[in-house]
Design brief:
heterodimer; A: alpha/beta; two-stranded antiparallel ribbon; 14 strands; 19% strand; B: alpha/beta; 8-stranded mixed sheet; 3-stranded antiparallel sheet; 31% helix; 20% strand
């Protein structure tokens, strides 16, 4: 908890929730994405719909799920199917507006690694869980929001292994690879919000969290950031904090 | 009428070493865990496992030395174990072959197998290292048998780029469901995950169930039955057979046990102790249920009617570590 009266995780959840517009279809994974999606639903985006890859479509959850397959994702759901329905008809069918992703490494163009750290994926230094639905969301959502811990080693120039495609090598490379959905719109970290320029897809510092300077953010980032347009990340409102703490995560499962 | 009902140990005896297997459920949900423990006790080896979002079901088999090769997308128990510990250690030590796909790609592969097709296209995985991944024989994009595994192609009609992924046909699919009849009708409640496609892409389906019910009862609502009974080889009554994983409407996951599993599975030594305590030690499934805390613990996992889970379950202490 900072002197300001909120924690970094709370600020991240609020910043990520603000990426969701009312009426959008949101594809959420485990952890902070669920906080963000639920917070948005309880504040500025009451008509947003959440879908989970394990099969639940548009539930009215009362408790945070521990994974996307949790029974808690089914409460008052519009539909309960399985991976076949959600991946084929909802995601590949082009109906997901925003997908939330996380990963161990994120590079300059928002490519994401959740498979293996090291030079040989067959004998990795660290084996990670694998894509799950991450590569699918990254390729097929209209846009993605990535949530990550901000450390220099986690934000390298190039990921060791590209599990989930961002803007690949920038410019038109994503389009040329044949990927249909839009790419990363924002990277929300423990220090900042990073976005990319329209055509080059080069990253820039959109905002730095209170307590950090743009120079500090750059020093913890393994690729060059354009700092010209950076502002301070707007603080959570008392209403957002109250809903996050009392309604979204009263058990403090993800808020800690 | 013929019955397909057999016991857990009898079912485990059907699966030989070297078989290819897929397992139903999703991360910490609805795995046929009691049957998997019976497989470990019987000493099955060299399995090839096909999975999408597995958890401590597949991780248990890996840690017990039953698995030679994996093809799949994700191995973790959600918040309880963000990376499946035996999987991680065995891959890092070069003890296990893995071929990576995305969940949508594995869905397409099982669906192709279920439909009798040789492959299906997906718009996912383009531009990723999964497409270029080198299989075990080090020939890019080809298996030892020389079969392409992932293939970037242009649609002959639209010209769109797609990735072609090969069908999966397994020897066995092992499922745990809420209800089944002795004749092989199956009823899944809550999310189906990929159970139907996994079952229909297997030569043999073994179903463990919470309740054995009359076939006629399941035939009152045929629209809720998604697997034809003639695709099911064996039905095994196994109450609480998914523990420590959850079964919608029957019991929640067990955060204490999943937390203890995650800790134990981080080294060979501590995992050997886990196996002795919960797999080799208990004489049968009932003895296992005693070992995990018996009715006292199982009562704490009971769902609230109408919710399918227990909203008062203590999830945090173990769950966030």
């Amino acid at each position: 908890m900072s002197k300001a009266g909120w924690s970094t995780l709370e600020l991240m959840a609020v910043a990520a929730a603000r990426e969701i517009a009312n009426g959008e279809v949101v594809f959420a994974g485990t952890g902070l994405p669920m906080l963000a999606a639920l917070l948005a639903q309880h504040t500025h985006a009451p008509e947003s719909n959440i879908v989970f890859e394990a099969g639940s479509v548009d539930p009215r959850m009362q408790q945070l799920p521990m994974s996307v397959g949790d029974s808690r994702t089914l409460l008052k759901a519009a539909q309960a199917g399985g991976l076949f329905e959600v991946f084929n008809y909802v995601l590949q069918g082009g109906r997901v507006d925003v997908g939330f992703l996380g990963g161990a490494q994120i590079d300059r163009y928002g490519n994401l690694n959740s498979t293996a750290i090291g030079t040989d994926p067959r004998r990795p230094e660290v084996r990670l869980p694998g894509s799950g639905g991450s590569a699918d969301l990254a390729a097929l959502s209209k846009r993605t929001v990535i949530i990550a811990r901000h450390e220099r080693r986690r934000l390298p120039e190039r990921v060791d292994y590209c599990t989930s495609p961002g803007w690949l090598s920038g410019g038109r490379s994503r389009e040329e690879a044949g990927i249909r959905g839009g790419g990363p719109a924002a990277l929300v970290t423990t220090m900042a919000v990073i976005r990319c320029r329209a055509d080059s897809h080069e990253p820039y510092l959109s905002s730095y969290h209170p307590g950090f300077s743009p120079a500090q953010v750059q020093s913890q980032t393994g690729f060059k950031l354009d700092l010209a347009d950076a502002i301070e990340t707007p603080a959570p409102t008392p209403q957002e904090l109250a809903i996050l703490r009392n309604t979204v995560d009263p058990e403090r499962i993800f808020l800690g | 009428m013929n019955t397909k009902v057999i016991g857990l140990e009898e079912a485990a005896a059907l699966v030989p070493s070297g078989a290819s297997v897929s397992i139903g459920g999703f991360t910490s949900q609805r795995h046929p865990s009691a049957l998997l423990r019976a497989l470990v006790r019987k000493g099955v080896r060299d399995l090839t496992i096909y999975y999408h979002s597995a958890g401590s079901d597949v991780d248990l088999l890996i840690g017990a030395g039953c698995v030679r090769r994996l093809e799949g997308a994700y191995l973790a128990d959600g918040v309880f174990a963000p990376i499946a510990p035996n999987f991680r250690r065995h891959v890092q030590q070069g003890r296990l072959e893995v071929e990576d796909y995305s969940n949508a790609a594995m869905m397409a592969r099982f669906a192709a197998g279920a439909m009798g097709l040789p492959f299906l296209p997906t718009r996912s995985m383009l531009g990723t290292d999964m497409v270029d991944e080198v299989p075990a024989d080090r020939t890019p994009g080809r298996t030892a048998a020389g079969t392409p595994k992932k293939f970037v192609a242009h649609c002959p009609f639209s010209g769109d780029k797609v990735v072609l992924v090969p069908a999966i046909r397994t020897d066995f699919c092992l499922l745990h469901v809420q209800q089944a009849s002795a004749q092989g009708l199956v009823r899944i409640e809550g999310q189906e995950f990929l159970d139907v496609q996994q079952a229909l892409s297997a030569d043999s389906v073994i179903v463990t169930c919470e309740e054995l019910v009359d076939d006629d009862h399941l035939r009152l609502e045929p629209e809720r039955n998604r697997i034809p009974p003639f695709a099911v080889q064996a039905v095994v009554p196994a109450r609480f057979g998914a523990h420590p994983h959850s079964v919608h409407n029957h019991y929640d996951y067990d955060p204490d046990h999943l937390g203890a599993y995650d800790s134990a599975a981080r080294s060979d030594e501590t995992f050997a102790h886990y196996l002795e305590t919960f797999v080799f030690g208990p004489a049968d499934h009932c003895a296992y249920l005693d070992a995990i805390g018996g009715l006292r613990r199982l009562d704490q996992l009971r769902p609230k009617r109408g919710l399918g889970y227990n909203p008062d379950l203590r999830r945090k202490d173990r769950g966030t570590q």
